[in-house]
Fold:
Amino acid sequence: MDLLYPRRCPVCQDLITAKEEHVRICTECEKKLPYVREPRCMKCGKELYREEQEYCLDCVREPKHYKRGYPVFVYQAPVKAGVMAFKYHNRREYAEFYTWAMLKRYEGEYRRFAPDGILPVPMYPRKQRRRGYNQAELLAKGLGAELKIPVFTELLRRRIDTVPQKELNDKERINNLKKAFHISGNDVKLKRILLVDDIYTTGATIEACAEVLLQAGVKEVCYTSICIGKGDS
Ligand SMILES: [Zn+2]
Ligand SMILES: [Zn+2]
Structure:
């Protein structure tokens, strides 16, 4: 199997050499992983530049409905290329490493939040059929299996393939996106939900999903992601 499908480092995507076989990523990348460092925004989890801040500018400007965010890496080299390949170039096997990284970093936080359901951010169905998978769903399933928490892939759905327009401000973008998500069925019994996505950029997607879930009766929503954009404040 290894000859046909040589293992690649999920970060730089070079082949993993025989002597590194036991590791998840190559040793060079391991040294360079851009973990989100303290101080972090108390809301979205983004790295902050100043110790005295509690929230990033974005979360101050646009207060979020979700409770808290748990992003693992800053969206930059060397992680960026691997995440793009995971998302767009069928490297679905990288899910294993990213799930592992999420758990390594946040297992305690996930367990304290104690969600009764884990939900991937849904993809527009036609897009998912074309791609063959939803990368957020692979992550959600990996987390669910490890944490023994059920994963719901059909509860939250995306009905229109919204392309958020650049000229919209944050509020308009969220309103626009909110129309894209809906709950299947009309009764959500879950109280606490952990949303899973690959990259948190403006936060509009997570915020739109959270609002739809809260309106449906969910009490608290947290999110986790592989990456988050670099701090803006
Ligand atoms: Zn590497
Ligand atoms: Zn923030």
In short: The chain has a mean pLDDT of 89. The two ends are 48 Å apart (CA to CA).
